[in-house]
Amino acid sequence: MSPLLGQRILLGISAGIAAYKSAHLARLLKKAGAEVRVVMTDGAQAFITPLTLQALTGEAVRTSLLDPEAEAGMGHIELARWADTLLVAPATADLMARLAHGHADDLLTTLSLASDARRVMAPAMNQAMWRHAATQRNAERLAGDGWQLLGPAAGDQACGDVGPGRMLEPEEIVAALGASQGADASASGPAAGLTITLTAGPTREPLDPVRYLTNHSSGKMGYALAASAARLGAQVRLISGPVSLATPPGVERIEVETAEQMHAAALRLAVDSDAFIGCAAVADYRAARVAEHKLKKRDDAEGLTLELVKNPDIIAAVAALPAAERPLVVGFAAETQNLARYAQDKLTRKHLDMIVANDVSQAGQGFGADHNAALLLWRRPDATTPGRHQTATLTKAELADTILHHLLERLSARQASDPHTQDTP
Ligand code: C5P
Q: What pLDDT digit, counting tens, does each position of 333-361 carry?
């Protein structure tokens, strides 16, 4: 069930070129089962017409505070009370400044002051405007006032610049809205009743009592996924390699060091899980023999040869469980080239249901970074090519929400096609 089902969403549109995407956003919100009403600023109407939004929502669009006819229908205070969520997308630099200073000089800013609803905005502007100290101050103040800021994403801009300031894609806004709605609903969230097991972080493969082989995985992505799954109401078990991160609230953490320990814990916990997410950067090899005592430096040899043996492929082992015990399996693929092709190959080869692929050659993404963009591919039983979704550059928390949203969709698609879970008439 969509977390936005029955939600009353007041969509505020301000004067940015991204306003053309607000029509699609309104449509997606309606599709997710929300009731949608739209308020546009004067400037927004230069980019998209109220008639478009009226046709998509089936509701008259409000544009003016001083409109006697509209006020006679549903006054602006009533409209402010009607909303469960006030979503401003796009939010321009000027609108953010006016909201940050408590202005009430048009309908949208007045409603923002008058409403007790959850308040969410998706900023969109030129990258220099977003980076400007004044905008950053306003963003901080708005967050402090209780606004949830979604994005902006970085990338190519309509003005020809490249950088942060792009509005998140409508799909990502809907996913984030649904995920935080689920968080508010906690135990009754969209993942309530589900058990999700994850692996995260690196593994550590000992060579002797003091040395080991490992990698640069920070665990941030896996921990963000665990936090997001718990917020959505799932029971979450996080099998973690050694990382320096706090356990997210409501998450059960199982600490392991080696790939073999992670493998054993994963197989033990996967069998009664609804979904398994393999986010760990598992060492492909371990020492064939772990020395009992510290390996000594030898003066009679210039080199040292270590014999390594292959570690088990944990996610492939989970994916190979018998159907009755097999959870939905989601893997990750960190690539530096041919992202889609390699990820699709891994999806098929490891028998995964979904794969999250990211290009780790991009600066500021992947290992240790706080942001990431990903290509999601999933197996479709009735099609020869996988389903796909390319996300914008998001914080790892936002990306986690997007991945979880897709995972929940795949789980309900699987349930719908499983004859054992369908009611018999
Ligand atoms: O083959 P590669 O390491 O690129 O595959 C990445 C995916 O496989 C990730 O989901 C990772 O957690 C998982 N993996 C695993 N066990 C291994 C190696 C990778 O579960 N030994």
A: 999 999 999 999 999 999 999 999 999 88
